[in-house]
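DATA SHEET
Item: assembly model
Revision: 1
Owner: S.N.
Input lines:
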Amino acid sequence: DTAVSQTPKYLVTQMGNDKSIKCEQNLGHDTMYWYKQDSKKFLKIMFSYNNKELIINETVPNRFSPKSPDKAHLNLHINSLELGDSAVYFCASSQVLAGGHGETQYFGPGTRLLVL
Amino acid sequence: GIQVEQSPPDLILQEGANSTLRCNFSDSVNNLQWFHQNPWGQLINLFYIPSGTKQNGRLSATTVATERYSLLYISSSQTTDSGVYFCAGDSSNTGKLIFGQGTTLQVKP
């Protein structure tokens, strides 16, 4: 059973299109995240949700909009895709303890987005 | 925000050799993890280690929280150990992991 799953694994699309990436975790965690890994392998957090509430919203263009229908799902919608959006997007989840201390974050397999 | 610096940036080993990877933090962290990104791009958890020492097979990690660094030891390296090793920490109690730039390890047969 996959703990954190993402769909699709690969996404090739044209500039200007709108696309979504879905993420689901079956670990019972209350917090989910989106990270972006650029072509130089640098990983940076984009968003996190705790029990469907937005907790972290980094300096990300507002073309990116996360949506959490329930605490097991966190989807990422991207409008008007640009060449610079090409990257690998990772979803992750963890349990956040009382006092805000986080535990191990588990990552999905990644979605490789290529914008042409 | 905190800065995370990893060294060395690149490492080439002969199979069977041992190595030590280092991670320095600019501020104290309360959540520290080591990951291995394999050649297929998958991020695999190695250790959750905000302090102390842990061992898992040929891998072990030590974090000295008061001195803001962590070490990952790989013993008797194998070709399957190749990939990029990342450390990441959270200083904000929000789960916001800040990643280092990674150490790219190549183990030659």
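QC remark: The two ends of chain B are 40 Å apart (CA to CA).
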